[in-house]
Structure formats: C-alpha cells, structure tokens
Amino acid sequence: MPPGRHKITRRSPLPDRSLKRRFQQRLLKWYAAHGRDLPWRNTSNPYHILVSEVMLQQTQVDRVIPKYHEFLDRYPSFEDLAEAPVKEVKNTWYPLGYNIRPLRLHSIACETVARYDGKLPRGAEDLLSFKGIGRYTAGAIRSFAFNEDAPILDTNVMRVLHRIFIAKGDPKTQKARLWELSEALIPPGKGYDFNQALMDFGAMSCTARNPSCRPCPMKSICKTYPFKAKRAGRV
Ligand code: SF4
Q: Atom 2 (ligand 1): residue with closest C-alpha?
C-alpha cells in the first residue's frame, strides 16, 4: 500500500495498532521538541485549567496569557469568582470578547460552590451536567487537571485527525468518527501530553491554511500529504 494510503473505512474507522503506534510516537517526539510552554501547563488546578480553556475558545493564545493571569489574580478560586458581581466579571473579561464566556464561567463557579463544595468534579457525566461545559471542555479538564486519558476534539485536533486519517469529506460532518479516533489514539497513561501535543501540532504545524507538510513527521502516514488547499476540508 503506498505511503499515507492506510486502510480506514466507514465500517472500520480506527487505524491498526502499527499505524497508531507510529502516529503516537511521532507526535510525542514532535511535541518534546516543539511544544509550547504555556502558563496553564504549569498547573493541575482544575479551576485554572477551566479558566484557560474557556478563554482559549475563539481567542488566540497570546491574547489569552495576560488576561489569564489578571483574571486569576482577581478571582483566585471558584468561591471568589462565585461571590463577584456578574457585571464586574464581565468588565474584568474585557477585551477578550465573545461575552457569553464570563457569564458561563461565573455560573459554573456558582454551581461548583453550591453542589461540589468549591471543587470541580472529575467524572465526565458530572462535568457535562454543568451548563457551559461541553464534551471538549470536559475532556480537557479530565485530561489536563485530573490526568485521565480522556479524548478532546477542538478545531485544531479535528483538522489534524481528519487530514491524516480520513482526508475525504467535510470534517464538521464527521465529528462522531473524529471523537472515536481521538479516543482510540491516546497512548495509555499519556493522555495529558498526547492531547497537548495534538493541539500544538494543529496550531503550529498542521495549520488551517499553510501546513508545514515538507518537514512534517506525519507525511508518510498522512492521507492529505501533500496538502492542497482546494481539495482539503475546511477547518
Ligand atoms: S503532512 Fe501536511 S497535512 Fe499531513 S499532517 Fe503533516 S502538515 Fe498536516
């Protein structure tokens, strides 16, 4: 079979063990050399992880970093955030935009204090029961705060997995399959690094418009290599 033309069909969507291992090893090696040092990677505090994840929705990392520090200085815990007036929280959030996010964070803080004594639960079902915590955020909290092998699927991860393992069709209509891939590919016990690596690889190497295909460690297994903008699904 030619490079990058591994078998993956609708009935059997998951790559075989050898392909999985090659992908995992190459991604983790790439991450060891190129991974970003971000402030929320130096903590396992679930509140800090949640704040970073909510801020990173729709906002670039370099804009999030100063606001992340400012927000946590002002509201160091779920209790502090829950007690703060919503208007003040919205003002503190400025100018990040997409202003439903501080309202969601505030509501999650109130619920965490009321139902869980100020400590975010670690179970997927409990997390998903919060208004404002969806499947991606629940996976990120379980993975980055509680070190569990929980899958994530944001825009970057969706793009990377679709390009390497599927290539055809619109990634946005294949979310169930991509979630399945994201879960199946995690090397046991390494969910934290693997998920961070996937996000960095999508943000820095396999980017939406100009992916770095030539030096890419995935090119021999990538179904989209070499990337051509016109034929690729848009994510
Ligand atoms: S070869 Fe190109 S399209 Fe494939 S994973 Fe690497 S950067 Fe992305």
A: 213
